[in-house]
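Researcher: We're teaching a course module on how sequence relates to structure. For the next exercise, students receive a sequence and then see the predicted structure as tokens, so they can try to spot secondary structure elements on their own. Here is the exercise chain.
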Amino acid sequence: MAMTMPRAISFPEARIRAQRRLRHRFSLRWPVCLAAFALGGGLAAAQDELPLAGTATEGGLVPGTTIVRVTNLEDSGEGSLRAALEGEAPRIVVFEVSGTITLQSDLRLDVPYLTLAGQTAPPPGITITNGKLRISAHDIVVQHLAIRPGPADDPAMNEGRDAISVGPCADCDTPARDIRLENVSLTWGVDENLGLWGETLRKVTIRNSLIAEGLRNAGHPKGTHSMGLLIGQAVEDVEVVGNLFASNLYRNPVVSSRASAVVANNLIYNPGLAAMHIYGGPSVRAAFIGNVVWAGPDTHSRVMALGLPEPFPMESPDAVIFAQDNPCCGREGSLPRLGLPGQWLAPSPPARAGGWEVMPSSQVPDYVLSFAGSRPGERDAVDARIVDGVISGDGRIVDMPPEAPVATEGQRREVRIPKQPFAASELAGKSNLEVFLCLEHRRVGGPATPECSETRAQLSEAAASAR
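Model: And here is the predicted structure for the students to work with:
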């Protein structure tokens, strides 16, 4: 389903001038790379017949769902987030408290049909620290949460210390698939900020999120790390759109062998040694369209938009790689550069984004800086610092978390669910509960999406009539 993009917020002229002062023009071959280019014919009209990447899941918005309220910031026990995730029934989790949840162990989402609606929390929203979210079920939606794990006290745990890890579960009835991560802020992972892995994982959408400051020297057993997003081997139908990748050494993102992905309209700032890249191996299928790379203080002088390992044509003879309109690496774009013979590249993409209308790269920075991350209309101090660092060009790759999330309780506020949540609203095709969740998404600064395409005024009017 195509969507109409909202108008991005314009930044003050002083910030625009600050952007223009930084005109880094780098030209990596890593060791064989391609930067911005457009292949003849562009995106053909026949793309409507292409397979769709991403998911159309509604998470917990299914018949028989229950609404579960988080009322405290404890690790466990009645009213906690962990307790809200327990049980078998479909559910929508809402938050009546804001602040930081310090985990004693990872949170597991291994029961299907679940929505974590972080937009329902009062300001400044929910931050999860000292552990990760492990998703191993199908039909999961996670919105408007900040997850900042940091290094583990036990060094043995750092090898898999992500902010969110999506993968198979040995004792789960069905494989993980149909997962939407939307307006989440993922920082300070020791392994990577977000990892997708497992040969049965399918249909994942990562949209309008902030993936930043993967930790470089925080105790990973392999040593220097700092990774953004891993699309692991054989993970298929992944949609990565409208995100901010900031100050990660590698994987901004990376697509592995036998995986398939559409990576479109992301802003990548200060990639250390690689921006978008591909791991060698058979059957890689990926489209990179309309992404923007801005070099920063830690960016190697040879970084390009898209990196391929040097033996790529020999290791991946059946790869289908499409790239178009990916400027790198200055604030005002760069000349197209091609470090790989064009005949090795596909004339059309292998798939298209299922819920995203691709915009020109010229529109991407304003859009992403306006709408990426948890609660972008009222960002917390960490996200605000990261975004300011992108705009000024001062943001750096970090070895350890630069600050600690404040582990105190914020505000409390009752979540007022419509009296008849499952009744049809005044908006065609939407229940009162859907209107409520979309309105909360828009109130905290979320953009229009395929699920929430109406204006805030339209949603407010429909919500008022349902009270």
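Model: If you want an answer key for the exercise: The helical segments are 13-21, 81-84, 312-315, 364-371, 381-392, 432-443, 456-466. The chain has a mean pLDDT of 86.
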